[in-house]
Amino acid sequence: MTDMTERNRTDSPDTEKELQQPRKPARRGGGDPATRGRTTIADGVVEKIAGLAARDVVGVHTMGSGLSRTFGAVRDRVPGGSTKSVTRGVKAEVGELQTALDLEIVVDYGVSISDVAHAVRENVIAAVERMTGLEVVEVNIAVSDVKLPEEEDEEPESRLQ
Question: d(Cα 161, Cα 158) in Å, to the nearest integer?
Answer without folding.
Answer: 7
